[in-house]
Amino acid sequence: MDVSSLLDGLNDKQAEAVKAPQTSMLVLAGAGSGKTRVLTHRIAWLMQAEGQSPYSILAVTFTNKAAAEMRERVEHVVGANMSRMWIGTFHGLAHRLLRTHYQDANLPQSFQILDSDDQLRMIKRILKSMNLDDKQYPPRQAQGYINGKKDQGLRPKHIDASIFPIEQNLLKIYQIYQDSCDRAGLVDFAEILLRAHELWLNKPHVLAHYQDRFKHILVDEFQDTNSIQYAWIRVLAGDKANVMIVGDDDQSIYGWRGAQVENLHRFLQDFPTANTIRLEQNYRSSANILNASNELISNNPDRLGKNLWTDDKDGEPIGLYCAFNELDEARFIVSRISEWHDNGGDLTSCAILYRSNAQSRVLEEALLNKGLAYRIYGGLRFFERQEIKDAMGYLRIMSNKDDDAAFERVVNTPPRGIGGRTLDILRTTARQHDLTLWQACLQVLEQKMLPARAGNAVRGFMDLIVKLQQDTMDMPLYRLTDTVLQHSGLKGMYQAEKGEKAQARVENLEELVTAARTFELPEELEEMGELNGFLSHAALEAGEGQADAFTDSVQLMTLHSAKGLEFPQVFMAGVEEGLFPSKMALEEGDRLEEERRLCYVGMTRAMEKLTITYAESRRIYGREDYSRPSRFIKEIPAKYVDEIRLKTQVSIPSSRTSHSDSRFNKPRMQKPQPKLAFTQNHESGLSSGQKVTHSKFGDGKVLDVEGSGPRAQVKVNFDDYGVKTLMIAYAKLETI
Ligand code: ATP
Ligand code: MG
């Protein structure tokens, strides 16, 4: 084969990286400059031009989807099946390693993965058993603490918590949590990485084997590796492997999860012979989009600095739409997509990106109303749905009776008379004697610690699991799944419920049987068996391969999960202060820069058209917020932007004058009226000193009236509630 064809479709700099001599290398470049393309071509080059065996290559990608694509492309180039090649995410690869060396990693063969939802439930139970108040110790905080420590490679024994009493308790929670996981054969996501790293450190023969094997290590999206991931790569590479990392400091968006952009510097120190190659041409976005993104990110200090250009045409300006509220915003976006679709565009070309998952619901509704198919990428996942997790709980406990998380999930689902009191006895027994819940059942039954009725119920549950296990032993996975759904009573329970939701749950359960039927155990994981393979697949790859992945559908996702992807049409929704940048980021200074990088990531996903929307008021997280457009909008020079106005608009004067950018001072459009008309705006004649009454706060006296129009506010001193500032449009104040 003519290896020079491997350089087709690459510019000089890219080609230089692809065919560089076998050494370590850093490809540092901005969005859309072809980093991922270079990495893929490099793999093919190593095999075809350098004669390297696919078994000597380890490639780390950011998502399972990216891994599958890369594998496919390599297979295409090489013309052979590459299923045994190690391409995957950090979690996927580490998991594979732990499966292969479960004994060396001190894990039972049937260990299961605890997803973050199950992890949180488990932590809640532990807090309860420790009699800790979950106001003072919010379960999510404890979860963050545990995962944060694991991401830094720290076990409880490594932590000195003597200084802060709060941390002492968190540490205790960590310890108890870890003991429970170990007893039950459960590993959480952070644990997968930590164990894999410890495997290197504790089992030199295992490490030596892989060091001998992997001569080439390639990592995409390197800027988002955390300490433990870096350490894992560092140890594996030793002083022989060639490591190629590609990344972009401007796209580092997981600092909040412990990712360390400093790893880029650390890499250059640890691999002093590494060359740095910079790519500067962007092939993804039209000039307007690229230039606007460059301007935005230039507001961040301390960048490594890159100069990205494109020879693409200016293209369309960035659309900016100010919506009245989140419903108006969703309607607007959906109508634009619908227009695009009517003109022959495909839905899959359209992505709606948002800062918070909670924003998706309204968008979904608007899409449903219009009858447009959509897909939530990496969001609400099939395998995360309640009924699916129930079903998986049965499969898990059949695979491993000591799986406490699964036990808790299914022991009384459907209800079988095992109540809170019985469970408390089981939990206490388990804790006191260092047993798993299943073992505690055995002990409690043997010692007749339960009233007869409860005892029978527990025995009934155990018999059911054992019988299911026996009956399904020789069945193929899908029949096993179907049998479990029928005989556990789970399907019957949802069938008996009425309504659409229950119907959807039954359909999901049926879909699970299909999922089991189409599940193919990867060759490299054959030893673990079909059932365990399926369970791990569910926990690890959830969401990325949703059933409707192939139908033409609008793509919905958070900005975080959009990393590395590209779409002709991108809508960024909810670009408002307090939402994006998020409130939390605003409270912590250094987080603002990360939010700006996230905005840069979002904007640079767009190839042809970028539309940014924000709403003047938004109902989210169960409350109503009024906010200003995000500072990020103001950071985009006006020359790249086209403020979108609807044809039916009637101009009313803007109430805002605070923006230095003239775009915000233009007359704004007439928005759909809210349910409560502006009966109490400035024209209603509220003035200082006036007595008013409010349905909740009671009587009070107006102190001040600020602004005009829909955003006018009134400050009232209520007799019983003190001073409150309210939006006049919504406060429904009556004068008295
Ligand atoms: P990100 O930072 O967003 O991950 P990236 O640097 O990995 O981006 P790629 O996804 O590899 O960039 O490439 C962006 C787009 O440009 C892709 O559609 C890719 O196929 C295309 N592309 C890359 N290099 C070239 C080239 N030399 N000629 C034409 N198209 C290219
Ligand atoms: Mg990429």
Automatic annotation (TrEMBL):
Which GO MF terms does the UniProt record name? 3'-5' DNA helicase activity; ATP binding; ATP hydrolysis activity; DNA binding
Q: Which InterPro entries match?
A: DExx_box_DNA_helicase_dom_sf (IPR013986), DNA_helicase_ATP-dep_UvrD (IPR005753), DNA_helicase_UvrD-like_C (IPR014017), DNA_helicase_UvrD/REP (IPR000212), P-loop_NTPase (IPR027417), UvrD-like_ATP-bd (IPR014016)
* Any GO BP annotation: DNA replication
> Which reactions are catalysed by this chain?
ATP + H2O = ADP + phosphate + H(+); Couples ATP hydrolysis with the unwinding of duplex DNA by translocating in the 3'-5' direction
Q: Which domain of life is it from?
A: Bacteria
Q: Where does ATP bind?
A: 29-36
Q: Which organism is it from?
A: Parashewanella spongiae
Record flagged with keyword Secreted: no
UvrD-like helicase ATP-binding domain location, by residue?
8-286
Source organism lineage? Bacteria, Pseudomonadati, Pseudomonadota, Gammaproteobacteria, Alteromonadales
Q: List the GO cellular component terms.
A: cytosol; DNA helicase complex
Q: Which CDD domains match?
A: DEXQc_UvrD, SF1_C_UvrD
Q: Which named protein is this? A: DNA 3'-5' helicase
Could you tell me which residue ranges the UvrD-like helicase C-terminal domain spans?
A: 287-564
Q: Name the family the entry cites.
A: Belongs to the helicase family. UvrD subfamily.
Keywords assigned by UniProt, alphabetized: ATP-binding, DNA-binding, Helicase, Hydrolase, Isomerase, Nucleotide-binding
